[in-house]
Amino acid sequence: MSGLLAGIEAGGTKFVLGIGTSPEAVTARHVIATRNPETTLDEAVRWLSSQGDIAALGIGSFGPVERDPARPRWGQILDTPKPGWAGCDIAGWFAERMEVPVGFDTDVTAAALAEYRYGAGRGKASLAYVTIGTGIGGSIMVDGRPLAGAGHLEMGHYYPQRTDSGGRFEGVCPYHGDCLEGLVSGPAIERRWGASLSELPADHEAHAIVAGYLAQLCHAISAFGAPEVIVLGGGVMKSPGLLKQVREASERIEGGYFPGRERRSIVSPALGEDAGIVGALTLAEEAMHGK
Amino acid sequence: MSGLLAGIEAGGTKFVLGIGTSPEAVTARHVIATRNPETTLDEAVRWLSSQGDIAALGIGSFGPVERDPARPRWGQILDTPKPGWAGCDIAGWFAERMEVPVGFDTDVTAAALAEYRYGAGRGKASLAYVTIGTGIGGSIMVDGRPLAGAGHLEMGHYYPQRTDSGGRFEGVCPYHGDCLEGLVSGPAIERRWGASLSELPADHEAHAIVAGYLAQLCHAISAFGAPEVIVLGGGVMKSPGLLKQVREASERIEGGYFPGRERRSIVSPALGEDAGIVGALTLAEEAMHGK
């Protein structure tokens, strides 16, 4: 291979930039704040270009985005409430200024791709990756590729069954109220209980309620996608004991029903914080090979 | 092509047998009652073998089944409450007696395959097919293949949000209580309101309640799989006006959120009652070509 791989994990509050000789060999990284598109993208181009001879760039972006290369708006950010960013042609901007092949997908799909190839999905045919943080987003990898059809997945926005009817919490999602993201994203937990899950005492009801909803998410992922492994990442999952509670609740509500359930598991990310940038570099590598 | 395609839509109450010169050209069909495995399979072999020179057989079976050819139990019915059928090696039985290549999948995946290739999915890259009848089952087709990982999908068994909290109905699913199948399958509707949806007056609350749950199903299918078209079939969907109500409720709860929503639609099966047998013949054709 001649030249370096460049990756961008484009988030709503920060852009993580990375350089690697392969997706698994990150040699430099740099974080910049997300401001208006011009300032942010310009700063990203300058840092990346200063790192040496770049062969290809991969971008995992906050969404919603157009991820289908066959569509005219490919590489753009679609309707986002984030000021100035709706309609931003993020892939086109970099392609024009850096004159390299650009791979593009959602941030969560990039992370899913990384976990599938190099993390918790090694040796598995299918994987779901979900991040539970400021928002809730997920992606499913099957036979080497992300599942997508008309647009990308938005599993954070399905409506789970309400299991906490006493003192009903209306949810914080501006589009759906009490969809999953409205109920158990980081901001939902803060709004409801005035603290993050990690800050609440171990015997606080919040732990079981959040675990119950995430168990429903895993149940729904199994019902609609049947992946071999479900990876739960993001800030909320750092709360001690939460993964174990999710597994137990998941077992309970599943009722011993799903075919192949002995081959399914719920795990933490193997790449930790690196999934996003490793995924972006993987997208760069694919773009370099014309995939 | 030399020889005929044979297909079996293996259901819990009846087996539909079919013969075709291609998946779309069904030349003969025959229905037999589902009794114990030996009697039923034997009768099926006798009828199919009497129809001429069979080149390959396709089976779409009630489940749960092992659909992965790489697994030792491929072609078997797994844990079913149906007496005598758990562990029945249905594909093996036919392969041994008819000495032809056998294609095998769930009944709903066979129907999904048929709608995808020859029905509502023509020209689409992805499709979900759901049957709402005695049970609720669905399958998602992407890039020419059914989505599956560790076992097949079981979307009828996800838990929707309860929208009818007054006079709470506990649901009829023996595994999950008020999962979707427990709430709006044919038997659930009968149990709750003492009649089928078609038999209830047009202004009965049941119509809006059922439509609301099926709209949640469509919303969840979009969130977890994002297919271009969702096909809703099965006995319950024959209730006049239901599809329209589902579409309207789906629009409402979606909140204008999903990327690519202008390319998504909810439709009736284009093949009607034929989807199952056309799908079985398609599985036969694939088996003949060694897929």
From TrEMBL, chains A, B:
UniProt keyword Magnesium present: yes
Enzyme Commission no: 2.7.1.4
Known catalytic reactions: D-fructose + ATP = D-fructose 6-phosphate + ADP + H(+)
Coiled-coil regions listed: none
EC supergroup of this enzyme: transferase
Cofactor(s) it depends on: Mg(2+)
Pfam families: ROK
UniProt entry keywords in alphabetical sequence: Magnesium, Metal-binding, Zinc
Keyword Cell inner membrane: no
GO molecular function, one term: metal ion binding
Domain of life: Bacteria
SUPFAM superfamilies, per the entry: Actin-like ATPase domain
PANTHER family: FRUCTOKINASE, TRANSCRIPTIONAL REPRESSOR MPRA
Official protein name in the record: fructokinase
Organism expressing this protein natively: Qipengyuania atrilutea
